[in-house]
Design goal:
The complex is a heterotrimer of chains A (258), B (311) and C (329). Chain A has helices at 42-50, 72-78, 94-99, 113-126, 141-154, 171-186, 198-204, 222-225, 228-235, and strands at 2-9, 19-26, 30-35, 57-62, 65-66, 79-82, 159-163, 190-194, 207-212, 215-220, 239-243, 250-254. By secondary structure, chain A is of the alpha/beta class. Chain A has a single domain (2-87, 157-254), classed as 3-Layer(aba) Sandwich (Rossmann fold), CATH 3.40.50. Chain A starts with a strand and ends with a strand. With 311 residues, chain B is of the alpha/beta class. In chain B, 41% of the residues lie in helices and 13% in strands. Chain B has 13 helices and ten strands. The chains are: A alpha/beta (258), B alpha/beta (311), C mainly alpha (329).
């Protein structure tokens, strides 16, 4: 369970906070989707969780313990984060890359048999066994995202945070990645997923948190949060909401302006 | 990289002047005669030291490497030329010196070359960058003599030291005396004459001239002129063309290449001496180092500065 | 890109030994192998023994260690700063060391051997200044490794200005000494100097090897590194400091020798080595090979004069680097 309690983050010198008293939680066993327009504070929340931005006030609880009291390595042993940006200036072999997920556990110069087992499991769950000999800069976008998830799984955490994992992916890769994340959540993980694709996440998420200008404006099941009036106000665009005939999930349709 | 190129060109210019540092004269108490008699004489209680502070051991060196053009000239002048087995790239006088193997540029000598020639004495210019080489050679059991032969006054002392290490102090004394006598003769001949100012052109970009600290400034004085930049204490200095024009020298002295530059470059027409053709072309080989040909250098300069002078 | 093979490692070590042997053989005069062995074992001609034992051997040892230190430093910095153009000299190390050396010259430190200390102090001061500048700028650009690089470049430029001022009115001794030193050389190598650098190389090199997994993580970027449990700022600073110390020690021992820290990690990566522990270890070997070779060129190209070692490494390094850049797309 990842719980944000009245979290406020202000960038250095900024007049208004990027995240303003946000409170919400990502529970175990489900996907919590964090949605909202550009600049609403979604990625700032991820950065705050990572300790890249200091909290002005509030706190972040990981299974009940205060994130602020945790060392960076302890954090990495509890929650695995797949950030939006990652550099491939010096590409690695996929095998080597996934092994980096064991870094939080590394001690001295040796690796333990636990590491090998964790890596093996991560590779199997993310179904990337065929990619192990490839280089990270030679992967397709979809393959790269799966490999990144595998790296996060090698961390063997109970919580997983994904920042925009499906950007630039085609339909098949997008869907298969979300199926993978969904199965992880079904296995008991607490998953927090930042996304722009409301229609997509509405079909996988058990909960949806809508941010606007750093504040939580709606929090609940996707059907509740995806309300035309709320979304129109937040996104400042005319919107209609319908229902997917098969699954019953809400579907958002932005209108053309006249 | 450009600054490096500029640096090396300045370096070349500087190396032509051979700077005069302040010499620390140690007590030279060993009598010339005692040294002349060589090793048979009981060692004196006070040691003669070179400019790195190392004791100068009297002896008859048989395989000498001279890493300074001036000392090479002196060795040949005192009759030790046949014992010189190594010289610098720049050594050009006397002609027979050119037949001696070239050991490199002289400063920071290549020790492999030096040791490979199996010398029993290595003579170095006493500059800071030669000190590691001198230390290394001594630690390997090769005698070294480091002299900072920068001014006309140093000449006698350098010759004396060379006399001690070659075992022929009398010849050294005679050579030193003959140079001193020639210089005295020129000094006397120009004494009553009008001393006009001379600008000594060393290098063009940047413009470098000699200061009071250079032996060339002494040479000018002996030959009957005064250095335009005698107010500068260092051996050499960067100056501006504007200042040269303001100071308005009567003569401009330059080497062969410099003379060509002076005549070709239109900027120099701003200097009245250049416009009027009062350019003295100095023989760089002759005036370039404080060595045994200083007398010759003074004579040739005096003849140009004071045509018709009796010498 | 060549696939990494198990035999690459012993081959690299063998090549290092081979090149070191070549370093003993070639010089102004070529000494045959038989005489080299005679000189090492204690028989043979006295002059040859002197040349091999007290001149060439410490020189080869120093060249190998300078190369290893610079290359390790470069490999670590490139990874930690996520910049394939990073190298120790870009971080103000060379500029600071040069200021220290030039000022020491100017103050009349006669012995070139004693320049090591002021050069080292200068390098450390410059690195400290670069860290301070980066921290002041860093509030706006937190965790951006470019800030550190820029700070290093700024400190380097300032150091250059100080050198220019110091040299503008200096004696020819100072000028000549400073220039020679700035062009780098291992010609004055002694066993004492080599041992001293060896000590540094041992301690700092091991520290870098230990930091290697952290560098692997840092290379993924600031957020990914934090996500994997790295204390990004602290780790970057540590790598920066250890690398700078290592480079400063080489600068103190042999003056400025550029491009080694830049190109060697690229050569090792071209053999498919990616994880930093192997990359740093491989860079040490290849760096040693490169600088020994460059020194052989420096002393055999224009006998009996010697070329500045820094100029030779640049002459080898720049074309190589341009070719690499071209292949990198």
């Amino acid at each position: 369970m990842i719980r944000f309690e009245s979290v406020t983050v202000r960038y250095h010198g900024a007049a208004s906070p990027a995240v303003d008293g946000a409170s919400f939680a990502a529970a175990d066993g489900g996907i919590t989707a964090l949605v909202g327009p550009n600049g609403s504070g979604k990625s700032t929340i991820v950065r705050a969780l990572l300790g890249r931005e200091p909290l002005e006030s509030g706190r972040i609880l990981l299974d009940g313990s205060d994130r602020g009291a945790l060392k960076q390595r302890e954090l990495a042993r509890r929650v695995a984060v797949v950030p939006q940006r990652e550099e491939t200036v010096f590409p690695l072999e996929v095998r080597e890359y996934v092994a980096l997920g064991r870094y939080p556990y590394s001690r001295g110069l040796t690796s333990s048999p636990d590491d090998a087992r964790a890596i093996q499991r991560a590779v199997e769950r993310a179904e990337i066994a065929g990619l192990l000999q490839r280089r990270t800069d030679e992967l397709s976008g979809g393959e790269w995202q799966r490999v990144r998830v595998a790296r996060a799984l090698a961390q063997e955490t109970g919580m997983l945070v994904l920042d925009e994992p499906t950007t630039f992916l085609d339909i098949a890769h997008e869907m298969s990645l979300l199926e993978l994340v969904h199965s992880l959540a079904a296995g008991g993980m607490a998953v927090l997923m930042v996304s722009h694709q409301l229609n997509l996440v509405a079909r996988f998420a058990s909960r949806m948190v809508l941010l606007s200008r750093g504040r939580v404006v709606a929090d609940g099941a996707p059907v509740e949060v995806m309300d035309a009036a709320t979304l129109e106000a937040v996104y400042d665009w005319p919107i209609v909401i319908s229902r997917d005939a098969a699954s019953g999930a809400p579907v958002l349709l932005p209108l053309r302006k006249r | 990289m450009a600054s490096f190129n500029r640096g090396t060109s300045i370096l070349r210019a500087f190396s032509r002047i051979l700077p005069a540092g302040k010499l620390v004269f140690c007590c030279v108490a060993v009598s010339i005669l005692a040294a002349a008699c060589g090793r048979d004489v009981a060692p004196s209680s006070v040691a003669v030291r070179d400019d790195f502070g190392n004791e100068v051991v009297p002896g008859v060196a048989r395989r000498i490497i001279s890493l300074n053009p001036a000392t090479t000239e002196m060795l040949f002048a005192i009759g030790a030329g046949s014992r010189v087995i190594g010289r610098t790239t720049w050594d050009s006088y006397p002609d027979s010196a050119r037949l001696v193997p070239d050991m490199g540029p002289g400063l920071r000598p290549n020790l492999e070359v030096v040791i490979g020639a199996k010398p029993d004495l290595v003579i170095l210019y006493a500059s800071a960058d030669n000190r590691p080489a001198a230390d290394r050679l001594r630690s390997l059991g090769v005698a070294t003599l480091a002299v900072k032969n920068d001014s006309i006054g140093d000449l006698g002392r350098t010759l004396r030291l060379l006399g001690i290490v070659t075992g022929d102090s009398v010849r050294a004394l005679v050579v030193a005396d003959s140079v001193r006598a020639t210089l005295d003769r020129v000094r006397a001949a120009t004494a009553g004459r009008e001393r006009r100012t001379a600008f000594w052109y060393i290098w063009d970009s940047p413009l470098i001239t000699i200061g009071r600290g250079s032996f060339m400034s002494e040479l000018l004085a002996i030959a009957g002129a005064s250095n335009l930049y005698d107010d500068i204490a260092t051996p050499s200095a960067n100056v501006t063309l504007e200042d040269v024009v303001t100071r308005n020298p009567h003569w401009v002295v330059a080497g062969p290449e410099g003379t060509r530059n002076l005549r070709r470059d239109a900027r120099w027409r701003a200097v009245p001496a250049v416009r009027a053709g009062r350019i003295i072309m100095a023989d760089t080989a002759l005036v370039g180092k404080p060595s045994v040909r200083l007398g010759e250098a003074a004579v040739s300069l005096a003849r140009r500065l004071h045509p018709g002078i009796e010498l | 890109m060549i696939a990494p093979r198990a035999w690459h490692w012993p081959a690299a070590v063998a090549l290092l030994l081979f090149v070191a042997l070549a370093g003993l053989v070639f010089g102004v005069s070529t000494i045959p192998l038989s005489e080299i062995f005679a000189a090492i074992t204690g028989g043979g001609d006295e002059t040859t023994t002197t040349i091999v034992r007290t001149l060439r051997a410490p020189r080869v040892a120093l060249a190998a260690m300078v190369g290893a230190a610079l290359a390790m430093s470069g490999a670590a910095l490139q990874g930690a700063l996520r910049n394939s153009l990073a190298e120790p000299y870009l971080l103000g190390v060379s500029g600071g060391a040069a200021v220290g050396a030039v000022l020491a010259f100017g103050l009349g430190l006669q012995h070139t051997g004693s320049l090591a200390i002021p050069a080292f102090v200068g390098a450390i001061v410059a690195v400290g200044a670069a860290l301070l500048v980066a921290r002041a700028a860093g509030r706006a650009a937190r965790g951006d490794p470019r800030t550190l690089l820029m700070a290093g470049v700024i400190i380097g430029a300032f150091a250059n200005a100080v050198i220019m001022v110091a040299l503008a009115n200096s004696t020819s001794d100072t000028l000549r000494g400073s220039l020679w030193w700035m062009m780098g050389s291992v010609a004055d190598a002694s066993w004492a100097g080599a041992l001293w650098l060896g000590l540094y190389l041992g301690v700092a090199g091991l520290a870098l090897l230990r930091l290697a997994p952290e560098i692997d993580v840092l290379a993924l970027g600031e957020e990914a590194a934090a996500a994997l449990g790295s204390d990004v700022e602290r780790a970057t600073r540590t790598v920066f400091l250890v690398s700078a110390l290592l480079a400063a020690a080489t600068v103190a021992a042999a003056g400025l020798i550029g491009f080694v820290g830049l190109i060697v990690p690229h050569i090792v990566r071209a053999f498919g080595v990616r994880r930093h522990r192997r990359l740093i270890a491989g860079s040490a070997i290849v760096g040693g090979i490169l600088v020994i070779l460059a020194d052989v060129v420096a002393r055999t190209a224009l006998p009996p004069a010697e070329l500045p070692l820094g100029a030779v490494t640049a002459l080898i390094g720049v074309p190589f680097f341009l070719v690499r850049l071209g292949r990198m797309r």
